Amino acid sequence: MAIANGKLKSIFALRVAGTDYVSDITSFDLTSDEAESDSTTFAEYNAGANRAWTLTVNAAWDGGSAGSLHDYLWNNAGASAAFDIQPHAGTTSAAKPRYTGTVRIPNRPDISAEAGTDATFEFTFDVIGTPNKVLSGTGV
Questions:
Q1: What distance in Å separates the CA atoms of residue 140 and residue 127, rounded to the nearest whole number?
Q2: How far is CA 102 from CA 53, 75, 76, in A?
Q3: How confident is the model over 95-119, as pLDDT tens digits?
């Protein structure tokens, strides 16, 4: 049975440095946690400055072939890149917002595989600053 409410469908494009890795990504989480800090002022706390954002992706691993997300991360460890998460089809709007920002690739991704199972990997980007919620326009 088809889902009647299209908002419930998880069909997204995820671009890193302008390249869409929709064929690699199996899931993602854009989350914030309390940032580590020796001291926080009331102004910083009230402005949400005490939050540290991360973008964690689970992706297929095909051995790190050229053009794959794993290959990009391997070759660009230590660099920063723009990201863009948006509904896969349709125009960006209040009903279908997209989220943009900049991530830092802190290290090379792990390599792990198990016989007889799909090879996947998990990778966590550090988001620089706070992600933006975009309600109009086109993607990266």
A1: 16
A2: 11, 17, 14
A3: 788 888 999 999 999 888 888 888 8
